[in-house]
Design brief:
alpha/beta; TIM Barrel; 2 domains; 8-stranded parallel beta barrel; two-stranded antiparallel sheet
Length: 412
């Protein structure tokens, strides 16, 4: 039985109890929402993952992307990023490795951490095939099977990149085309072979595999916009409609599912995107990249995405994928990972305050009281990044900060 099946059968599991405790919720509320498909707990049945709830009424979670590339295959550096991700509060890790050995880092992460792990199996299949056009349906499904068998908690699968969607994209060209790496791989394969996306054509087989391992499906947005000029276009919405149907089918087969979303979206379209996804997908958890709200800030895209992420979270997004300062420029370094996580945590927390998540303002209220009392040690302990606090609070012997000094408005 999958976790979803147990919830449907009125069984409250230890995972549900754990999430209820950490979220200040009633276990029955968690069970009901899982049974309805509005909360998920991504947890492969063969892995000792810390149960983490994502969805309706819960704190907004954040994900940290790490992984090797063909240009940078340093496993020690990636494991350093893993530890930084855990230290600064990432709720999940995604291994996006495309280096020569895509299995190695995934298995190391499973050994060295207990937070939920997500992967994109088509990357492994592409690397093994050398050229994506050499990939077969069996290659792709073997990669998914390997990831699930290893203990991966959720997999991104771009099932909505269909021939019909590609035809729509052809008839309505974009500024930046397909920017999803997995989406572009499938599009190239489909165009070359003139065949339907195997993840769509053999979706029932995918569901059977996911159900066997209780692996959550993260239905990937292969047509997410890569520039604000392409946001909320026909291809994006057509794919979303397909994903809604596939999410319903997964739910009916007792497979947990979440929907991935854009991408580059201007401020005024974010709320519409979130509400549209929620309406079409029966309030399934929504996992968004950013969103990035302007295209002119390379080197600062952790800020552009945090702006969009806060609005998305406040509008109902459940899971934010962080963006680092090196987005669009390079593979992130350890410090980039830290900056991306802190920015995403701020966005998620700001969103939680806006949507009234239980207990969201407690830490803020405690910080305000500590500021009133000029209690610097307490302020540091409450800070998202105590190290940065200490860096700027150079001389802790001073009762006030060096900006106001004796003119401090708070000091009586």
């Amino acid at each position: 039985m999958t976790l979803l099946k147990k919830a449907k059968d009125n069984i409250i599991t230890k995972e549900m109890k754990h999430v209820a405790k950490t979220e200040n919720q009633d276990p029955e509320y968690i069970r009901k929402c899982i049974a309805a498909g509005t909360i998920i707990i991504p947890k492969n049945k063969s892995r000792n993952t810390t149960p983490t709830g994502i969805g309706e009424g819960l704190t907004t979670k954040i994900n940290s992307n790490i992984g090797t590339s063909q240009d940078c295959e340093n496993y020690e550096e990636e494991l350093k990023k893993l530890q930084i991700s855990i230290k600064y509060g990432a709720d999940a890790i995604m291994d996006l490795s495309t280096g020569n050995d895509t299995d190695r880092l995934r298995r190391l992460i499973i050994q060295k951490s207990h937070i939920p792990l997500g992967t994109v199996p088509i990357y492994s299949s592409a690397v093994q095939s050398k050229d994506i056009t050499n990939m077969t349906k069996d290659n792709l499904f073997d990669a998914i099977k390997t990831h699930a068998k290893d203990g991966t908690d959720f997999v991104t699968v771009h099932c909505g990149v269909t021939l019909k969607v590609l035809e729509t994209l052809k008839n309505h060209p974009r500024t930046t085309g397909i920017v999803s790496r997995g989406g572009s791989m499938l599009a190239k394969w489909m165009t070359y072979h003139k065949k339907e996306n195997p993840l769509y054509e053999y979706y029932d087989e995918l569901l059977e595999l996911a159900r066997k391992h209780d692996t959550t499906l993260s239905l990937g947005d292969g047509l997410r916009p890569g520039s604000i000029a392409d946001s909320t276009d026909k291809s994006q919405i057509q794919e979303l409609i397909i994903l809604a149907d596939l999410a319903k089918k997964a739910y009916e087969q007792d497979v947990q599912v979440m929907i991935e979303g854009p991408g580059h979206i201007p401020l005024h379209e974010i709320e519409t995107n979130i509400k549209l996804q929620k309406a079409l997908c029966n309030n399934a958890p929504f996992y968004v990249l950013g969103p990035i709200v302007t295209d002119i800030a390379p080197g600062y895209d952790h800020i552009t995405s945090a702006i969009g992420g806060a609005i998305a979270a406040a509008s109902g997004a459940d899971f934010l994928c962080y963006v680092t300062p090196s987005e669009h420029l390079a593979l992130p370094q350890a410090e980039d990972v830290k900056q991306g996580i802190i920015a995403a945590k701020i966005a998620a927390h700001a969103g939680d305050i806006a949507k009234g998540i239980k207990g969201a303002t407690e830490r803020d209220n405690a910080m305000s009281q500590a500021r009133k009392n000029l209690d610097w040690k307490k302020q540091q302990s409450l800070a998202l990044d105590p190290t940065a606090f200490k860096k700027y609070r150079i001389d802790t012997d001073h009762e006030t900060c060096t900006m106001c000094g004796k003119y401090c408005a708070i000091k009586k």
